[in-house]
Amino acid sequence: MLCSQLAWAGTDTKVDTQEYLLPNGLKLIVREDHRAPTVASMIWYRAGSMDEFNGRTGVAHVLEHMMFKGTDKVKTGEFSKQVAAMGGRENAFTSRDYTAFFQQVERSKLNAVLELEADRMAHLNFDDAEFLKEIQVVMEERRLRTEDNPSSLLHESLMASAFMSSPYRHPVIGWMNDLENMKAEDARNWYRSWYAPNNATVVISGDVQAEEVFRSVEKYFGPLSAHALPERKPQIEPTQKGMKQVLVKAPADSTQLTMAWKVPKLEAGQLEDYEPYALELLGAVLDGYDNARLNRNLVKQERVVDSVGVDYDMISRGPALFTVSVSLAKGKTVAQAQASIQKALKEVADQGVLDSELKRIKVRILSGQIYKRDSIFGQAMEIGTTEMSGFSWRDIDPILERMQTITPEQVQAVAKKYLVDDRLTIGVLDPQARKTSTSEKVGK
């Protein structure tokens, strides 16, 4: 058993966080927080879309759906009904890096949801007919969220263009052709491959006693057998040799532009590397608050775009992108928007950022972290996502502390080094007229 105590940054509250490892490889992390009589129970499987391969994309997400289709003890649909009957809420989600399932219940119901999760970890049982119904649901989800959403189409094409070998080039929901040809046995094989205690982390946060939770998890999950996991190939992304561009034509109201640069991420065991932290702060300099540079310059002053967003995730299993996305104002061109973005980036690279500007952003980041920890569910999410990316929950506060040490010169250095054309992929959404349904009537 490994135990530790974590102090909340910026508060006087001490929060007990304890970690256990069962003989079958299951990791348990318990965060005690006794402010309310509730508990968040999450189980994380380190298997997401990045573990898929061509012809089977989307299977991680499909299996997430099938996990609600019953076992010998719990029939189809009964899992959600039982949690609802406890007065709880539950759901699941799949990402490139992991698949997670959660319940939030009154503390006395924790054992009941743990028993349900342990049962479906080892005894999932669905027939072909149930799979055929659910795969239609997933395909409809893809139609609604991606094929009928111009922003999603642009993002999907951008990722497929930016990455050559990394599985991040595939959409989490999968390509439609793969979904159309997926069989129930594909989902069963995924389940048999990855759903095992030695590939899972249970995170419990809330009004609990860690030792009691450990005994419950040991009772329900301890008897489950570990098995060998599939070999994970590194699939290192080759060095980009020059600018890439992709054009997407789809029905939309306005032109969209996304510029994405390949940049480093934070590596486990290398928490002192300043570059990922500086990139995170650079993102906040550009788009971290209402009057941040891109919003101030592009939206308010130049009025070349209607909206702007910057995205960078320094913690992930796969490679990282630093992206700037804008929706163009009426009458403005892609060339104008791109020039305005590059002008703002060049200003940072050439002149740097103000110390006062960076201090304000660091305070916002620290405040956001404290507010996030006000949530029982938010605490479990933070621990789980950190663990799934190859880090430890013990790294969370050191990462936050390291962020506070970054200087304006370091932010300037990463802007100059990484936001260059040879690392850039440009995606443009060319809006097309929307088709008018023949059933629609104009006028009276």
TrEMBL record:
GO terms for MF = metal ion binding; metalloendopeptidase activity
Q: Does the keyword Transferase apply?
A: no
Question: What does this protein need as cofactor?
Answer: Zn(2+)
- Taken from the record, one Pfam family name reads Peptidase_M16
> Domain Peptidase M16 C-terminal, which positions?
182-362
| Similarity remark | Belongs to the peptidase M16 family.
Kindly give the PANTHER family that the UniProt entry links to this protein: NARDILYSIN (PTHR43690), PROTEIN YHJJ (PTHR43690:SF17)
The protein in question is named Zinc protease
Provide the organism lineage as a comma list.
Bacteria, Pseudomonadati, Pseudomonadota, Betaproteobacteria, Burkholderiales
